UniProtKB/TrEMBL annotation:
Protein name: Stage V sporulation protein AE
UniProt xrefs under InterPro entries: Spore_V_AE, SpoVA
Membrane-spanning parts: 6-24, 31-48, 54-71, 83-112
Gene: spoVAE
Source species: Paenibacillus aurantius
NCBIfam families in alphabetical order: spore_V_AE
PANTHER family with a match to the protein in the record: STAGE V SPORULATION PROTEIN AC-RELATED, STAGE V SPORULATION PROTEIN AEB
Key words, A-Z: Membrane, Transmembrane, Transmembrane helix
Pfam families: SpoVAC_SpoVAEB
């Protein structure tokens, strides 16, 4: 059953993103930014952790989880180190994911040759 909920919730987040682009004519960049901010707001309200416990990968894989990670890291480091922790927390929590994205994108660019 956890797989079913992950599929439904993850799919619902993707449907919201697609509707934002199709119905409201938002660009992909605006849609992505809005979903990241939505994830940060939900984390700020303290609702994202229960959401993850319920939906599992359906809540941790979509772009909303990036906003969750940013807000979670900032909150945690703020509690430990004060105002400077807001910046350091954002970088600490997301550095591995961002670094992996840059490295894998670079490797893909070495292998693939775009047409055009």
């Amino acid at each position: 059953m956890p797989f079913v909920w992950a599929f439904i919730i993850g799919g619902a987040i993707c449907v919201v993103g697609q509707l934002l682009m199709d119905v409201f004519k938002l660009t992909p960049a605006h849609t992505m930014s809005l979903l990241v901010v939505l994830g940060a707001v939900v984390e700020g309200l303290g609702w994202y952790d229960p959401f993850i416990r319920f939906a599992g990968a359906g809540a941790t894989v979509p772009i909303t989880s990036f906003g969750n990670a940013l807000a979670h890291g900032a909150q945690k480091e703020f509690d430990e180190h004060g105002w400077i922790g807001i910046l350091s927390g954002i970088f600490t929590v997301t550095s591995a994911g961002v670094s992996a994205a840059i490295i894998f994108s670079f490797l893909a660019a070495l292998i693939a040759r775009p047409k055009g």
